[in-house]
Amino acid sequence: MSPSPPPLNASQAVERIREIIVGRHLERLEQRVARLETTATPSPAIGFPPDRSAVNESPLEALQQNVQRLVDSNRQQTELQFSIYREETQRLAVQIQHVAAIKAQEGPPRAVHQLEQKIGTWLTEWQHSFRDHLLDRDRRIDPRRGRGPVARDRISPDAARKPGCRSRIHRRTL
Predict the structure, then answer these.
(1) 99-108 long-range contacts, Cβ below 8 Å, gap at least 24?
(2) In terms of pLDDT, which residue wins out, 130 or 29?
(3) What is the average pLDDT score of the chain?
(4) CA-closest candidate to residue 155, choices 138, 171, 131
């Protein structure tokens, strides 16, 4: 299994979105220009007025001029669309950053709180289980001592004075 890439922050995500939009747009533009350059007839939908000088020139020159006008017109339209896309992307980036800032200020989500509660409950249960285990162990070691609950660990003053004692902590029972 390959490791997943690290999550992107808001500005990196916005930049990635911009790259995708610009890349798609440029790809479409290149396809459109290539199609226009290979096509020799002008489109009637564009509605260019007939050029008066084309009557005097050869048909090939007039056709080249019409193609050039179409290419120029498409470039202008594409640049206009590109600027609109860029403005829209910037507007979305500002919105994304605004939402990210709001989310950062909100604090931990509800799921984190629930997880903390579950872990706290589990730790409490584990602590009780461990205490029960210690009591059972004490009962097995010395049946007279292990009858009451463990009061607490404390440093025995007598143990601190004994030279041969390894541990100064002794368990007292109630």
Answers:
(1) 100/9, 100/10
(2) 130
(3) 76
(4) 171
- CA angle, corner 100, sides to 94 and 104, nearest 5? 145
Identify which of 152, 142, 17 has the alpha carbon closest to the alpha carbon of residue 85: 17
Q: How many helices (H) and strands (E) does the chain have?
A: 5, 2
- H/E run at residue 170: strand 169-173
Q: Phi and psi for 169 in degrees, rounded to 5? A: -95, 125
Are 14 and 97 in contact by the 8 Å Cβ rule? The answer is yes
Q: 């509605």: which residue's tokens?
A: 47
Residue 144 is given by DSSP the state: T
Of 8-12, 42-46, 73-77, which range is least confident? 42-46
Q: Say what the pTM is.
A: 0.30
Domain residue spans in the chain? 10-107, 114-173
Strand partners, 153: 171
